[in-house]
Write a structure and sequence with these properties.
Strand content: 35-45%
Shape: globular
Strand order of the largest sheet: 1-2-3-4-5-6-7-9
Oligomer: single chain
Order of helices and strands: HEEEEEEEEE
Helix content: 10-25%
Structural class: mainly beta
């Protein structure tokens, strides 16, 4: 091998090894919505005269029995709680926006459809108002102030 080519070959090998590190794939963990409070609880929902419960994890994600529903929180900042819901039981989905009370025991807001069957709606166009109330976990009697 020509001695003049050794520094060139060494430089090439060093570049290849450095570039190899740049092409490695790094796995990242799933991103959770920013939550400033733990939303873990069973919550009572009042929606246009229908009352049912939902169990949520600390990030505000969970399911309810009505139409096999599920909500997923996408954002929680300064008491403003937003997300999406889906109900496979009646082929509907949409979004919601709530304002959580200062004591974190209740929330009020709006929900809307984004899809019913094959029909698609612009967010916020069609929906209604609803309320959530934390179900007491200390054995206290449940009373609804709706």
């Amino acid at each position: 091998m020509n001695l003049k080519k050794i520094p060139l070959v060494a430089c090439f090998l060093a570049m290849v090894s450095l570039l190899g590190g740049c092409t490695s794939i790094q796995k990242s963990s799933p991103v959770s919505p920013t939550v400033e409070t733990d939303l873990t609880s069973e919550w009572e929902i009042q929606d246009e005269g229908i009352v049912y419960t939902i169990k949520l994890d600390r990030y505000g994600n969970g399911g309810y029995d009505w139409q096999k529903g599920r909500i997923e929180t996408t954002s929680f900042v300064d008491g403003k709680w937003t997300g999406n819901w889906i109900q496979p039981g009646n082929d509907r989905e949409g979004g919601f926006e709530l304002r959580l009370s200062d004591d974190r025991s209740e929330a009020e807001g709006m929900w809307w459809y984004t899809r019913i069957g094959e029909k698609v709606f612009p967010p916020g166009e069609s929906g209604g108002k609803f309320k959530l109330k934390r179900v007491p976990t200390d054995g206290a009697a449940r009373t609804s102030s709706y």
